[in-house]
Amino acid sequence: MKVSTWKLGVTLFISLALVLLLAACGSSEESSTEEEGSSGGEEAATEESAEESSTDEEASSNAELEETYTVVSDTSFVPFEFQDENGEYTGFDIELIKAISEEAGFEIELETTNFDGIIPGLQTGQFDIAIAGISITEERKQVIDYSDPYYESGLHIGVAADNDEIQGLEDLEGKTVATRLGSTSSAFIKENIESATPNEYEQLDQAYLAVENGSADAILYDAPNVSYYIKTAGEGKLKVVGDLYQAENYGIAITKGKEELVTAINDALASLKENGKYDEIYEEWFGSKPE
């Protein structure tokens, strides 16, 4: 009887030990599983947080650009901007800004004004962007921002076809020289041609007509425009004389404080030059690829 009791005790002790051992193993495995789950959850949460942060940053970057910008251009600066026979605005600048806006991902609303109203309009926020053969100058940089240069220009002299007296810049001294109001050519006349009188016109056709009817001795203005006019409406009436003066670059003008827009336009312009679209537009309006 005593032996049976002893055996029973040993059996119960072993059974209890096994139960405790199994319980401990179960607790350890459960704890390990929980730790792994917790670790995996933290990693997943970290990854989700990083993805959300990246998405937020991308959304923020895209949100910096507005959906639509107001673009102002000139009314009669052929072949850069002018009205065609259907009354639609076209030209090198117009086609270029359309391609830039498409590449950059924003819409444009086109408005037109006289050239001398463009810079003031950008300063007051009436316009966001301006493209109108606008020369890049240090003075203008004080009040507006510019894109990277997109066209290299200069100044040409145009005179009546039968005028043999004026052969170059020095022959304009003391003469009446037609040009456009608010242009860099007007400043050039005042600063570089002694005793010359600049006749400034709001509309370019008025400046050319002044030379044709004799009320001005010559016109000094942007070379591509002078050359284009003489090949078209001024054929047989005017001619180009002298050299190309004051080489200058055109830039797209932008209201100050829109750094994200400047960056977007520059990136789009670079892409168009890289993929050949810029050359295509240039060739359409000037007959050859840019040098």
Summarize this, please?
By secondary structure, the chain is α/β, with parallel strands linked by helices. The protein has nine helices and twelve strands. A five-stranded mixed beta sheet has the order 4-1-5-12-6. The protein has a five-stranded mixed beta sheet with strand order 9-8-10-7-11, sandwiched between helices.
What does this protein structure show overall?
Residues 1-23 form the signal peptide. Residues 68-288 form the Ionotropic glutamate receptor C-terminal domain. Residues 44-66 have a biased composition (Acidic residues). Residues 68-289 form the Solute-binding protein family 3/N-terminal domain. One of its GO terms (molecular function) is ligand-gated monoatomic ion channel activity. The structure is a single chain. Helix 2 packs across helix 8 and helix 2 (92-104) packs antiparallel against helix 9. The protein has 9 helices and 12 strands. The chain has a 5-stranded mixed sheet. The chain has 291 residues and is of the alpha/beta class. It has 3 domains: 1-64; 65-150 and 251-286, Periplasmic binding protein-like II (D-Maltodextrin-Binding Protein, domain 2), CATH 3.40.190.10; 152-249, D-Maltodextrin-Binding Protein, domain 2.
